[in-house]
Amino acid sequence: EESKRGIGFSLVYVGSLIPMFTVVPLTDDLVRSGLDQYFMLLPLAAAALSFSLAVRLHPAVSHESTGQGKPMEWGTYGDLFRETPAGKIIFSCFFFGLCDASIVFIGTMLMEKSLVPSWFLFSLGVGALFVRTAGRNIFNRYQRTVFAGPSFLVMALCLLGLSFARTSLGLVLWGFFYGMGMGYGYPAHLALTADLAAPRLRAKASALVHFSMDLSWFILPLYMGFGCTLFGTQQAFRLFAIICIITAGMTTVMWLPKKLSS
Q1: Distance (Å, rounded) from C-alpha 13 to C-alpha 127?
Q2: Phi-psi region at 197: left, alpha or beta (left = phi > 0; alpha = psi -120 to 50)
Q3: Which residue pairs from 84-88 have beta carbons closer than 8 angstroms and sit at least 24 positions apart in sequence?
Q4: What is the pLDDT of residues 156-184, one digit of tens each?
Q5: What are the residue ranges of helices labelled H in the chain?
Q6: Domains, the chain
Q7: What pLDDT is attached to residue 203?
């Protein structure tokens, strides 16, 4: 139902934050205690739980006036690119995902400065949870695509600020504001599927969104390897943050309402 879609995205994202307060501290304790074998079992347990939930899902059906349901008739990828701004979706989701994937890079950068990454991760979760609970109904009041660019930009600016942090307090502050940006940015990008695609195209739009986001998790480690070798860890991270800021600005302009952009 359209009126409940905004709160639905909020609940999805709040649920995704729970591991920040449970799994992250647990895995950190396991690694520090030398219990690596239990740490390695966690991904297998998560995969098994996800699979057990997935097999219980029922195919989507469309209900007509007769009250009888029939299987949904899905469109093609050609239809998706013709009927939706698929190019914008790919651009926005890929570079947002690249910024989100920075969590892989942050640990290396912070440990080189003898700082503890857990301070950033914990405050990130607090900031995201705060903004999603305090502003849980805001997605129902405004056009959700408008949030995609500014929230991405907040995250990118926090990455640049984080590169200059020298204390744990700095990690907490930048992590909190980064989490606030991510608290709106992630569900806003997930909402692109439902807001810009017809029901018959949403499965493929969802696949496009997640593929674009996940691709960045493959590309960023490649950049880390070459960038750290050529420029050093700190400079490579700052260059990455600047790239995120530039693409976030482009994303903000790209998703402006037509009345404002014209």
Answers
A1: 12
A2: beta
A3: 84/196, 84/197, 84/201, 84/205, 85/196, 86/205, 86/208, 88/254, 88/255
A4: 999 999 999 999 999 999 999 999 998 88
A5: 5-21, 23-32, 36-54, 77-83, 86-100, 103-112, 117-134, 148-162, 168-196, 202-231, 233-254, 258-261
A6: 2-40+83-261 (1.20.1250.20)
A7: 84
Span 191-201, pLDDT tens digits: 888 788 888 88
Amino acid type, 126: V
Contacts of the segment 132-139: beta carbons below 8 A, 24+ positions apart: 132/10, 132/13, 132/14, 132/17, 132/183, 132/184, 132/187, 133/14, 135/184, 136/7, 136/10, 137/6, 137/7, 138/6, 139/5, 139/6, 139/7, 139/9, 139/10, 139/187, 139/188, 139/191
C-beta of residue 174 within 8 angstroms of C-beta of residue 158: yes
Q: End-to-end distance of the chain based on CA atoms, in angstroms?
A: 32
Its pTM surpasses 0.85: no
DSSP class per residue in 68-87:
-EEE-----HHHHHHHS-HH
pLDDT in tens, 14-25: 566 666 656 766
Question: Which value, to the nearest 10 degrees, does the dihedral of the CA atoms of residues 189, 146, 86, 246 take?
Answer: -90
Closest CA to 251 of 96, 43, 107: 96
Q: What is the predicted pLDDT for the residue at 39?
A: 74
Rounded to whole angstroms, the Cα distance separating 224 from 216 reads 12
